[in-house]
Structures
1.
Amino acid sequence: MKRSAPILLSNMLVTGILLAGVAAAGSAFGAEGDSGARGALRAALATPQEIAEGKRVAEASCASCHGLAGVGKSKDTPNIAGQRPGYLYQELRVYQVGGRGNTPMNNAVKFLSDDALVKVSAYYANLEPALPAASVGTKTGPAKLDPLSAGKAAASGCAGCHGETGITSTPGMPNLSGLDPKYVVAAVKAYQHGQRKDDMMKTLVSAVTDAELDNIALYYALQKPGKAKTPAPGDQAAGKSAAVACAGCHGDGGVSTGTAPSLAGQDAQYFIAAMKSYKDGSRSESAMKAPAASVDEGTIKNLAAYYANQMPQQPTVRKPLTTEEMAQRCDRCHGVNGNSTDLHVPALAAQRSEYLERVMRAYQKGERRSTAMSAMLDGVSEADIEGLAAHYARQKARAVVFLPLPSK
């Protein structure tokens, strides 16, 4: 293996940087070989004098927003102290050619020479990285729970009636096991808005937010399903025969594959009460009005017994990744805990959370273009973005170390 260019420690008098578009003979940093180069970039060394010249560029063009210490002065201005120098240089070039639209950054770097860009990148890369956000009081607060954990916490108040995992042992209380989360959300909203008449439920769910409701429904959907632990008197065989007419919407055995709720494993007393509500109009779902009117009380009781004894199945719901699991995917490129060891890839550790949120949204909207980043953020929710940003803002930033490899 060839000996690589001796790029060394940031936070000392010499900083490694990858150059682009600078001729070897005229390089501000005398080139030390190109074994570490990628594409148009090549490894070089910055001298103390060149870093000092970079500081003067920073004072004139960058410090008003990023400070001389490289710590952003506003919430969505990134910290750039200790950032990977090749990445800084490449980003400055993008701004210089208008690749980020018309922003203050375009104007700040528009007329800087390539030599100045290289030196100011070396200067900021040489600085001590910013402290984790929790240490400097910027936006983080306590780590947010992932949706599943948040749903479990929010559902704790429901356990007395519906069981800890949605399997009820209280007659008259619906089993939530095996229900599609969209149905659970719609049913609770119907109680909130008075479309379903139940004063106790309306009071209990009145303060539940949409986000909490989504998490609760997700939590129950991902629990192992089971039949209600309540009595179910009635003729199951007769109920099975009557259920043929219901299968088109509610599925064979009461396991729905559409928008109608699954009935398998449902508490019999609750089922009977719901059917009576459809019959007398206190539940207003038009699709159930005619079917409920066509069956007598005996048939309803038999249907309840049949469905209560069918085993529910877990709906098809993808378990969301936790913030830590998502961060592990990001770390593949951005380094452990966001401390990149690739000069082309930005370090995320101790970065401002507001800035990280803004950039991730920009990739999602196509305002920033990256095939890899667009793929990684596809389907990532707003809550996930906030969680990831807060996660990296809390990480300790570490200066990257580059060492020469001995020849074999």
2.
Amino acid sequence: MSAPARDVGVVIVAAGKGSRTGSSELKQFRWVAGKPMLLHSVQAFHDRDDVALVVCVLPREHAGDPPAWLFQCDVERLLISVGGRERSDSVANGIEDLPPECGIIVVHDAARPLVPASVIESVIAEARRGNGAVPALPVADTLKRVTDSGAISETVDRSGLWRAQTPQAFPRAMIEQAYTQARANGIAATDDASLCERLGLPVVVVPGSERALKITEEADFARAEALYSLQE
């Protein structure tokens, strides 16, 4: 049986400072669940035979001298890129570094180190069908809109509301069009799919996972450790 075509390019956004954890060490370089956070994501994508290249977008001061542990993977399918001022700049830099044979592009935040392989498979499968794909979970909590003074102004209807995660996957032409238009109009976004949505391009939701927790604050490291110990 022939090997699958390597037509998937992955951009892992790891250029943030992670200041909300309160640590001087870069959040994406800290250890969680047995290895550095960023390494979890790189190895998860390298486990796929259809991945041609994983681009890690790092802060400029680290791109020229990445940590040695980052090379504990398939270095032939690894490239280091330099981050931009905003997240969207970093993603655009990473996309530009992907070779032309990457017809499917996946964008993932390094702050979500424990994303299951099943979620990665789901978003890539949808991208192969011509859709942008976002893993997400339905909102379960009651939502309140609150004023600057802390007063509740209204209860928000949660029906149809979902919490978006990464990785997000797209046909290459779609995400390149979205970023070209965003740059031309001076639009920055923290969510890649939103740039496609504003152009009316097809984007769908696939089931996300609680294991794809985004590590933002110090307490999230303990939550990630607990999730890692549970079976998928």
3.
Amino acid sequence: MTSTSTAFARARSEGRAALIGYLPAGYPSVEGSIRAMRTMVEAGCDAIEIGLPYSDPVMDGPTIQAAAQAALDGGVRTADVMRVVEGVAETGVPTLVMTYWNPVERYGVERFATDLAGAGGAGLITPDITPDHGSAWIAAADEHDLDKVFLVAPSSTDARIAMTARESRGFVYAAAVMGVTGAREATSDLAGPLVGRVRAAGDVPVAVGIGVSNGDQAAEVAAFADGVIVGSAFVRCLLDHEGDEAAGLEALRSLTADLAEGVRRAG
């Protein structure tokens, strides 16, 4: 298991932000998703977020929803997600699962933590629970030395941001766009102030998810954040080349290289 803090420390030593890439497990297949994420690592991602496909993804935009639904239709379950974690963590980069809370609760919180750690996972990103309602996960994560990544938004109060910065380990996920996920043509002017508020509240890296889809946008966000999170743009690479794995992997490689150059340009 590689802690997420190592990715941020390495990036910081190089005078840049970390690039964190997201794809859902099981799309276009379990093994296909492993190959896709490994390609992203080879091309420059410092850490990988693996989405656990869920039937009621209220915070996901249409791109991620489409891929996650295809994975569910293909029979992907939580045990398959753990297999993907194992396959990606073998690369040596920090590998986290991003999931709504209900699948974790149904699987069993302690069992989930045990299996995630056993697969080499670095931790869990939980977009729909806050630290004051996540005591079961915090206890299990601490027992297994797993990162606990909670979200903040521009609407978060200073008190909630302080609590989140205090309880998070690995990084704080700054969701700097109000609404569902998805690539956007321009970055949000809410991101910089939100990062500043988190930094003022605690000593923990802050990574921004803001709909980044190219190197120029990555450079813009990397100028003020510790990490740049990219999801929908990566998923779109696979959706646009459905049925042609080689083309999809090449699109992923090209996009990752552009984004990796962007986070370095900012430094």
